[in-house]
């Protein structure tokens, strides 16, 4: 199993940022999600985040909302998420689950952490779990030997950044902008400052997500961050493709462009 | 009190811990409440909490709020005895707290005036809000017009259709109404969309949350601004009947009108607190909004509370004939009151609510909101249970003008 620690150490040795790709489980289909994630790994993604589809994704923009809605309509369950993780981890990429808190809470924190570890998952990103409420999840994750990634935002005070990074293992997710997920024309200038402020409080790698959609943007972010996170841009290409094969080719090409970007 | 020229006290507003159920520093009522939101929103929530903390102890703020409640909202609202309606309740004496007589026609005006004043103190010029039945949207648009704030209302597309009149009212008041077309296209999706707007525009915008749910400090702030309902009603009941009521009844969707009337009675152990949720087509139909009666503990819209959810934590869409009760979550303080046993919660079907709606109109000449009709139906049953000596206070949270379309269809008028 490839750990986050290995991935970031290797990227650092290569003097580049890591490339992190996001896709929801069950999209465009249960098997299609595994094939699509494998295509991202093949094209150069080092880390894959598998999204756990949730009925009320309040920090996601229209692209991910659309994909998640289709996934839930396809009947995606947590067992499918675990199976997706297993399939993707087999490609050699470090594989995380990104999820809102309620599905874990309902499934049972200990059980979820154990099942994820057994599937070969290396950790979770939980965007609506704040440090104040995170203790049960951190305990369950530590017991199962998986990492816990939380988010800092441009609005975070120094005290909040410290509280968040103290809960993180693996890496810290820096949200580049105040807003929901989705590709933007430009990457917010606040991102660089946030990475700098975050690094003052931790030695963990800091990855930037929200709004990254092109190779040039990936290169720009790689100039100051340890990892570049891309989600909506891949999903948009799958949604816009005439068929699954074309979608796979399209996200492979985009991931390839991004992989070059983080190596510039 | 208010119309005698005296003013609201800080204790009237907040109860200031008098009943031992103010949330802790993390916004927890026991295990319920808290904050489950993107980190980006934490500073804004902290700011709202600290500005509110100062405001509620500031005489100037209390004076401004009191002034608006008296001269704009029309407080205090009266109590009305409804003897002809009560005949159907086994002769128990039912007394209505007339929130339907406030400006804009529902209790929602209390909270929005308080939060609109807070918005000014936050130095923000734009408010956003979610709305189900449209009452909170109308109230927010009203307060925004009054205080010169830009106003955007998110409303499920399904709700826009069943409450078309309220959409027109909001537009007339200068608000922008955004129909939300994702998910179930009702209140829960409108809340998701409002949060998305807020996280994007938080520097300029206050999210004028409409019920006692959501992340801390909203459950506490909205409760405090709605609390005047019970403070007045308690005093008025003593004047009218010489004693406290045997029971207080209110409809529960998100729970703001119910907490508003319950809160001042929490310390009165002899007073039963009964909340009525929408049972829609009945529990067995699966089409209901019985969050407290049939839901389970989870997290929705930033707060730990009871939620209608499946075995994997996906929200189940609720159903009610009344848009204002059509919500799969509920305020965390209600969850706490339920688990502590201080309040009890029951279901009222669409048909039972519509029967009470019609009965009040025909026996008393008052057309209630369908939301409030759930509490009326509950009171009829409770009256038959408690007997003719009992006195029951019901929060008539709003008027039924907005529900005429639904009533025309339901009764073939």
The total of beta strands of chain B comes to 14
- Report the largest inter-chain contact: A-B, 39 and 37 residues
Tertiary shape of chain A = globular
Given as residue ranges, the uncertain stretches of chain B (5+ residues, pLDDT < 50) are 1-6
State the secondary-structure class of chain A.
Answer: alpha/beta
Number of domains of chain B: 2
Instruction: Give the overall shape of chain B, derived from the CA principal axes.
Output: globular
- The share of residues in extended strands of chain B comes to 15-25%
Number of helices of chain A: 12
Query: Biggest β-sheet of chain B, characterized?
Result: 6 strands, mixed
**Helix proportion of residues of chain A, in percent?**
40-55%
Spatial arrangement of strands, main beta sheet of chain A:
5-4-3-2-1-9-8-7-6
Mean pLDDT, all residues of chain B? 94
CATH architecture of the largest domain in chain B: 3-Layer(aba) Sandwich
Could you describe the 3D structure shown?
The complex is a heterodimer of chains A (264) and B (413). Chain A is α/β, with parallel strands linked by helices. Chain A has a single domain, classed as TIM Barrel (Alpha-Beta Barrel). Chain A has twelve helices and nine strands. Chain A has helices at residues 4-13, 30-42, 62-73, 78-89, 101-107, 109-118, 135-144, 158-165, 190-199, 215-222, 232-240, 244-263, and strands at 18-24, 47-51, 94-98, 123-125, 147-149, 151-152, 172-175, 206-209, 227-230. Chain A has a nine-stranded parallel beta sheet. In chain A, helix 6 (109-118) runs parallel beside helix 7 (135-144) and helix 11 runs antiparallel to helix 12. Chain A is globular. The two termini of chain A are 28 Å apart. With 413 residues, chain B is α/β, with parallel strands linked by helices. Chain B has two domains: 27-73 and 108-223, 3-Layer(aba) Sandwich (Rossmann fold), CATH 3.40.50; 79-105 and 227-411, 3-Layer(aba) Sandwich (Rossmann fold). Helix content of chain B is 43%, strand content 17%. Chain B contains 17 helices and 14 strands. Chain B has helices spanning 10-14, 42-55, 59-73, 83-86, 108-121, 135-147, 157-162, 164-172, 187-201, 218-226, 228-241, 256-262, 291-294, 332-340, 350-364, 370-386, 404-411; strands at residues 28-29, 32-33, 79-81, 93-98, 126-131, 150-156, 176-180, 205-207, 247-251, 272-280, 296-300, 303-307, 343-349, 391-396. In chain B, the strands form four sheets. A six-stranded mixed beta sheet of chain B has the order 3-4-14-9-10-13, with helices on both faces. In chain B, helix 12 links the parallel strand 9 (247-251) and strand 10. In chain B, helix 11 (228-241) packs across helix 12. Chain B is globular and about 55 Å long. The termini of chain B are far apart. Residues 1-6 of chain B have low confidence and may be disordered. The interface between A and B is large, with 39 and 37 residues.
């Amino acid at each position: 199993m490839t750990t986050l620690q290995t991935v970031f150490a290797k990227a650092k040795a290569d003097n580049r940022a890591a490339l992190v790709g996001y896709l929801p489980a069950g999209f465009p289909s249960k098997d299609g999600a595994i094939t699509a994630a494998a295509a991202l790994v093949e094209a150069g993604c080092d880390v894959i985040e598998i999204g756990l589809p949730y009925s009320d994704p309040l920090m996601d923009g229209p692209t991910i909302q659309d994909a998640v809605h289709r996934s839930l309509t396809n009947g995606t369950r947590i067992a499918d998420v675990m199976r997706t993780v297993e399939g993707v981890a087999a490609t050699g990429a470090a594989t995380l689950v990104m999820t809102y808190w309620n599905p874990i809470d309902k499934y049972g924190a200990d059980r979820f952490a154990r099942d994820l570890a057994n599937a070969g998952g290396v950790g979770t990103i939980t965007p609506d779990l704040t440090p104040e409420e995170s203790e049960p999840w951190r305990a369950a994750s530590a017991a199962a030997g998986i990492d816990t990634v939380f988010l800092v935002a441009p609005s975070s005070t120094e005290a909040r950044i410290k509280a968040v990074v103290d809960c993180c293992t693996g890496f810290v997710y820096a949200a580049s902008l105040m807003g929901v997920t989705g590709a933007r024309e430009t990457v917010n200038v606040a991102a660089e400052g946030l990475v700098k402020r975050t690094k003052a409080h931790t030695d963990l790698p800091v990855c930037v997500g929200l709004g990254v959609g092109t190779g040039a943007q990936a290169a720009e972010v790689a100039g100051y961050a340890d990892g570049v996170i891309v989600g909506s841009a891949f999903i948009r290409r799958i949604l816009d493709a005439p068929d699954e094969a074309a979608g796979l080719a399209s996200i492979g090409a985009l991931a390839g462009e991004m992989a070059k970007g983080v190596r510039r | 009190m208010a119309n005698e020229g005296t003013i609201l006290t800080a204790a009237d507003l907040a109860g200031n811990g008098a009943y031992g159920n103010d949330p802790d520093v993390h916004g927890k009522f026991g295990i319920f409440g808290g904050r489950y939101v993107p980190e980006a929103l934490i500073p804004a929530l902290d700011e709202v909490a600290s500005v509110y903390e100062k405001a509620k102890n500031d005489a100037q703020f209390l004076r401004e709020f009191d002034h608006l409640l008296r001269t704009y909202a029309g407080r205090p609202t009266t109590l009305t005895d409804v003897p002809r309606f009560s005949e159907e309740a086994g002769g128990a004496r039912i007394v209505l707290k007339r929130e339907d007589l406030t400006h804009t026609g529902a209790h929602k005006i209390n909270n929005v005036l308080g939060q609109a004043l807070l918005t000014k103190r936050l130095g923000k010029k734009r408010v956003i809000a979610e709305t189900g039945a449209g009452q909170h949207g109308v109230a927010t648009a009203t307060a925004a017009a009054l205080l010169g704030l830009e106003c955007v209302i998110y409303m499920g597309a399904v709700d826009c259709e069943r409450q078309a009149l309220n959409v027109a009212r909001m537009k007339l008041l200068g608000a922008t109404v955004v129909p939300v077309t994702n998910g179930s296209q009702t209140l829960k999706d409108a809340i998701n969309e409002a949060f998305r707007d807020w996280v994007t525009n938080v520097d300029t915008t206050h999210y004028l949350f409409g019920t006692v749910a959501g992340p801390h400090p909203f459950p506490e702030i909205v409760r405090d601004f709605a609390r005047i309902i019970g403070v007045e009603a308690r005093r008025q009941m003593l004047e009218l009947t010489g004693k406290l009521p045997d029971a207080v009844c209110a409809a529960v969707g998100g729970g703001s009108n119910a907490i508003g009337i319950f809160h001042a009675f929490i310390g009165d152990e002899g007073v039963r607190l009964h909340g009525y949720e929408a049972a829609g087509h009945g529990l067995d139909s699966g089409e209901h909004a019985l969050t407290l009666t049939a839901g389970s503990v989870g997290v929705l819209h930033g707060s730990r509370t009871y939620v209608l959810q499946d075995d994997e934590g996906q929200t189940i869409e609720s159903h009610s004939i009344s848009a204002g009760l059509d919500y799969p979550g509920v305020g965390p303080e209600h969850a706490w009151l339920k688990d502590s046993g201080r309040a009890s919660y029951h279901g009222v079907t669409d048909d039972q609510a519509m029967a009470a709606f019609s009965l009040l109109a025909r026996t008393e000449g008052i057309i209630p909101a369908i939301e409030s009709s759930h509490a009326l139906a509950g009171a009829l049953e409770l009256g038959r249970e408690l007997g003719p000596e009992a006195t029951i206070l019901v929060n008539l949270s709003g008027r039924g003008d907005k529900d005429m379309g639904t009533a025309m269809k339901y009764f073939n008028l």
